[in-house]
């Protein structure tokens, strides 16, 4: 699956909403943007409606923009990987410290899945680890906290929202596939005195996916979670609600994903040391899931060579891990167009154009766009023929009502019904829950 994405971050920075779709002109030029996707020969698009203008309250929605754009994607037979929450929440939710976020978001996800039943691929909550770090550990976005307790609370609520939404989406679309885009990080000790803080960071980086996939965390991280506000019943929720079998692990990798850690715990960018292939093996060894390279880019230089060279290097890394035995299912250059102010992680409203897109903001193709188009043409038919046992069972939008797709959904729906607990057990679980709704009820 060769993909790109339309950047749809919308965190709050203080009282200011930073909406990349607005800054980059997508609301006015969405049809042209979809034309550009087709012109590159791309059939998979990371895309999602802006949550802050779509989800107006519990049970209240404005689907107008989503209806228009999703209808056009269906017409074009482009497969969306739907990104429902990308670094922000509507004002009425508050922020990621709100314990009601998870159940409320799950209902939003269910409503989306019911409204657009032909959508199969989802990233319910994008980069949960990064969102929790930037919002509640670094103090940059949303709740702007700088505490371990704030971080744990945000992470717990983000991952719970992701898990509950997977459950709800599967009830609407039993053959849904979740491509969990998450930043793949590594922290290098700068000297022997920095080994311990680097080890802690290297344990923290796995927390979001450990919880998401129902994997027991390491003992040190268990103590960290318990010491910073996670209740045992919260932890048990993640062990009891596992949807790993429906997932592809999305690994995002940029040149900023590796860090040098000092003895006092401060870190700075290390550049590319292990690279995508080395770090992806660490994640694959831990979770043993099919992998997709779900984000990368590079700020281009005046000659237009820096991004092209990075594309070649990332693709070489993908081929290397694939040839060494990792089941790689796709690759993504993110995003379709240049972005604005990501050089300050969206914290400052400088209007700086970041030349990272396949196209610039005037929708002129960049050299990396032409290179990616050629790469897709060269490799699109080769890889599936070499890995027929790893082909993802994707149903294209216009195949939704085809007999084979209907039969598969019916088979999976019946299978899930057979695995459901008896009604008496469900009632008992609901009675034991403090809310009376059950520990995993959306």
From TrEMBL:
One of its GO terms (biological process) is carbohydrate metabolic process. This is Family 1 glycosylhydrolase. GO terms for molecular function: hydrolase activity, hydrolyzing O-glycosyl compounds. Coiled coil: none annotated. Keywords: Hydrolase. Pfam families: Glyco_hydro_1. Gene3D superfamilies: Glycosidases. The keyword Calcium does not apply. Transmembrane segments: none annotated.
